[in-house]
Amino acid sequence: NLKEMIEKTNSKAIIQVDGGISMENINQVAKAGASCFIAGSAVYATGDPVAMIAKLREEGSK
User: Fold this and answer.
1) How far apart (Å, rounded) are the C-alpha atoms in residues 48 and 54?
2) Which of 12, 31, 40, 43 is the most exposed place for a label (fewest CB within 10 A)?
3) pTM of this prediction?
4) Which of 14, 37, 40 is nearest to 26 (CA)?
5) How many other CB atoms sit within 10 Å of the CB of residue 52?
6) Residues 40, 12: Cα–Cα separation, whole Å
7) What is the DSSP string of 15-59?
8) pLDDT at residue 62 tops 90
9) How many domains does the chain have?
10) Whole-number Å distance between alpha carbons of 58 and 56
11) pLDDT value at residue 1
12) Which domain holds residue 11?
């Protein structure tokens, strides 16, 4: 898998996921190796984007 390849080669590459990120899946995506998330709809569809970013960060770091 990509995460293992990056670790084996001591690469400084990051795994970024663009699209489909939500409170329901950010933790699973982070555990799979992603460390950068593009979550436009999840953030801007709420009335408080700043609060949603904080919630996503918290959920993604569990």
Assistant:
1) 10
2) 12
3) 0.81
4) 37
5) 17
6) 25
7) EEEES---TTTHHHHHHTTEEEEE-HHHHHTSS-HHHHHHHHHHH
8) no
9) 1
10) 5
11) 84
12) 2-60
